[in-house]
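User: Show me a protein chain along with its predicted structure.
Assistant: Here is one chain, sequence first, then structure tokens.
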Amino acid sequence: MWDSSAVDSLELLLHPVRLRIVYALSGDSVRTTAEICERLSDVPKTSVYRHVGLLLEGGVLEVVEEKRVRGAVERHYRLRQDRVTIAPEEGRRMSLDDHRAGFATAMAALLAEFNAYLDRPGAMPFDDAVAYRQGVLWLNDEETGELLEDLRAAFVKRAANRPGDGRRPRLMSLIQFPSDHS
């Protein structure tokens, strides 16, 4: 059992299924485990239930409502926003192997989400503005910092958006690291 006061956020969040559960509960969503299972239909239900339990025990999720449904208790979960990011001091302490594992986890979750999108009836990548582009930018450290701040500002501006007005969730990823193309 996780001790939520001592749980390592890094260890808890760096798992592809748990990361996908975090995605499914983004935007102040409140969902039951059954609803999370529907969103992660490619993951066995027993795995979803187990990982929801770990995220709850680790303090990443909280129960916002419990209802009796056909003799069972149905819980409604929400993300604890203060627990879904890796603190800068944790990031600085990460070893190179931790970074490899973190990147692999993020890519595995991204690939699973992309495949789940493609497997949905009526998926239309071009019409949905699906993009997966890479390019090399030649930037010094100051320019890199400015670009990252511009991107952060663009994300923050839209992070307060809530469901409605034709909005639907869009998974965005930013990967940036120095390359050896000199």
